[in-house]
Write a structure and sequence with these properties.
20 helices; binds glutamic acid; two-stranded parallel ribbon; about 50% helix; Rossmann fold; Arc Repressor Mutant, subunit A; Helicase, Ruva Protein, domain 3
């Protein structure tokens, strides 16, 4: 093991930062922070057909949003850069040439079509479809002929045909792989681009990575990488493979299970604090009972030894609950500022609110804070406070279409019109008085008022909502509902 802990998160920029990637980044980050080590971000963009500049930006921005700051990598630089694999091509080329000179690799002239048809035949004959080693023993003459034909070779690793490669995984324990089952994989493609297994070893060594912490899907790659370390005479880092993340149906987490990118969660109003806390527990636990951890607590308590070997199950309800918890930890002023973008996005407000609007919005937030699970809930919970009310047709049908509702609304209007002030307590007294006068139970009698004012049968606390809406708007809505009923039942 190298002296200083140096870990990396090495995403392939083919899309947004996935939840699984974010968890890998988080565990690496926690480990580095706890050990006083370095956390490195490396962009593995050698798959040119799938890597995009937008994806790099999206990943970088999700990492910033989560607060997973890196010590070395894009934007920050560092002593072991560049941190994008496409900027390191000469290093892969040199390393491959060194292996070639030592006869640990060989040139392979097989074309993709040839490989494909041989694979088909192998499958048909019940043989394993890996590379058959055809170019491993080419004579100089055969090589010259291929060159003359204009073929450009790929460089393959000459895998040992026997023996066992052992990975001592810090999470999975000892894992053994038979070398004869590993085929001669490609290190450099004919176009000079390295494959993942090769680039990752060259870079992890050049960047002095001490621990490779990554998803379990890479466990089958580990023996290939260990063989490369050995062939190159590089020290082998420690490996830790994190358990898979499965959906509630125990299938690998995917779009089918809902949002899978950090960006989607951000847009839906999840807080980075909640996501980090939730992801930390997706495969790791401190004890059986503690679920809430601050970032500092996670740094202090995290350990690879407590990472589970069995798959983690994605539980959206738990994440939502946790998010609600963190929403209620945010000071009111800040929470109000954090919901403004959601109101704007939904078109409920246009410009950035001035001081007066902000203090009204703070009161709005107080009225819904306990019900919010995600910041975006502000839209559905409070849309009736902005502009015209939209009456839910079903609510109108069930609650408003009666003589009794008509009487309730008329008296409510009268009572609220004559209130001296327009505060929650006075509004409550007036409306409860109305129920008594009509000899109706509040639970029933207040429903027509709720539907008239908020448009729905379920709303934030009614008296507070009426205060927030203001007298003029409230009276207008009561009257409008009354006219509607008269039309319907009249
Ligand atoms: N680029 C690889 C991925 O995104 C990284 C694997 C590794 O950490 O070695 O899956």
């Amino acid at each position: 093991m190298a002296e200083r802990v140096r870990v990396r998160f090495a995403p392939s920029p083919t899309g947004f930062l996935h939840i699984g990637g974010a968890r890998t980044a988080l565990y690496n980050w926690l480990f580095a922070r706890q050990k006083g080590g370095a956390f490195i971000l490396r962009i593995e963009d050698t798959d040119r057909s799938r890597s995009t500049e937008e994806a790099i930006q999206a990943i970088v921005s999700s990492m910033h949003w989560l607060g997973l700051e890196w010590d070395e990598g894009p934007e920050t630089g560092g002593d072991f850069g560049p941190y994008r694999q496409t900027e390191r091509l000469s290093l892969y080329e040199e390393t491959a040439q060194r292996l070639l000179a030592q006869k640990k690799t060989y040139c392979c002239y097989c074309t993709p079509d040839e490989l494909k048809s041989r694979r088909r035949v192998a499958l048909k004959e019940g043989r394993t479809p890996g590379y058959d080693g055809r170019c491993r023993e080419l004579t100089a003459r055969e090589r010259d002929e291929f060159e003359k034909e204009g073929r450009r070779p790929a460089i393959r690793f000459a895998c040992p045909r026997e023996g066992t490669t052992v990975a001592n995984d810090l999470i999975k324990g000892e894992t053994r792989f038979e070398n004869r089952l590993i085929d001669d994989f490609i290190l450099l493609r004919a176009d000079g681009f390295p494959t993942y297994n090769f680039a990752v070893v060259v870079d992890d060594n050049a960047m002095r990575i001490s621990h490779v912490i990554r998803g379990e899907d890479h466990l089958p790659n580990t023996p290939k990488q260990i063989l490369l370390y050995q062939a190159l005479g590089f020290p082998i880092p420690d490996f830790a493979h994190l358990p898979m993340i499965l959906g509630p149906d125990r299938k690998p987490l995917s779009k089918r299970h809902g949002a899978t990118s950090v960006e989607e969660y951000r847009r839906n109003g999840y807080l980075p604090e909640a996501i980090l806390n939730y992801l930390a527990l997706l495969g790791w636990s401190y004890d059986e009972k503690t679920t809430l951890f601050t970032g500092e607590e996670l740094i202090e308590k995290f350990s690879l030894g407590n990472v589970s070997r069995s798959p983690a199950i994605w539980d959206p309800a738990k994440l939502e609950w946790m998010n609600g918890h963190y929403i209620r930890q945010i000071p009111l002023k800040e929470l109000t500022l954090r919901i403004v973008p959601f109101l704007r996005e939904a078109g409920l407000i246009k410009d950035f609110p001035d001081a007066e609007e902000l203090s009204w919005l703070e009161r709005v937030v107080v009225s819904i804070r306990d019900r919010m699970k995600v910041l975006g809930d502000v839209v559905t919970l409070t849309d009736f406070l902005f502009g015209e009310v939209k009456l839910d047709p079903q609510a109108v049908e069930r609650v408003l279409k009666s003589d009794e509702a008509l009487r309730v609304l008329a008296l409510a209007e009268e009572k609220l019109a004559s209130l001296p002030g327009f505060r929650k307590d006075g509004i409550e007294r007036a409306l409860r008085g109305m129920c008594e006068e009509l000899s109706l139970k509040p639970a029933k009698a207040l429903q027509p008022v709720r539907v008239a004012v908020t448009g729905k049968t379920v709303s934030p606390p009614l008296f507070e909502s009426i205060e927030l809406l203001g007298r003029e708007q409230t009276l207008q809505r009561l009257k409008k509902a009354r006219n509607l009923i008269s039309d319907k039942i009249g």
